[in-house]
Amino acid sequence: MTDKTSKAKAQTAETTAFAPVAQIMETLKSAQEKIQVPAAARDFVKRNAETAKARAADAEKGALNATATVEKALVAVVGAGASVSRGVIDATIANVNLTLGGIQSLADASCPTDAAQRYVAFVREFGQANIVRAQDAFNTVRQAATDGAKALQAEAGKLTSFGKTA
Prior knowledge:
This is Phasin domain-containing protein. By secondary structure, this protein is mainly α. It has helices at residues 3-34, 39-107, 112-165. The longest helix is centred in the middle third of the chain and has 69 residues, at 39-107. The two termini are 71 Å apart.
């Protein structure tokens, strides 16, 4: 057998082997044009697509609300930090003024006993003022942390319940 003859026989065998597949494909092509998707099936798909769009919009709204709540909580915490920072600056200035006043008071002392009494009064006033400032700063930080934690917990609860309904 020559190459041409063997190639021809192989081609014939191939055509013969795939003839049923070709016939099925032709039948499906002609049947495909005749197949109609029922209106109920199309409506079902459309309704589900609309429902999915609505749920996606709800999820987006929930995520945006959660982000806004977290942002508010973080702004409150940052605001509290700025407030504490201002408090530290105010306390430093008050301490400098108190110390300068104590120095002036010591300069006015007429004897060592008077100077010692003035110094003790200065230390007492300085300590009491700083204790009050420290308590105020602590209360400010605690309140900001509590408010931020409550806001985050509330939002986390909303997200958890949203996840269960979606």
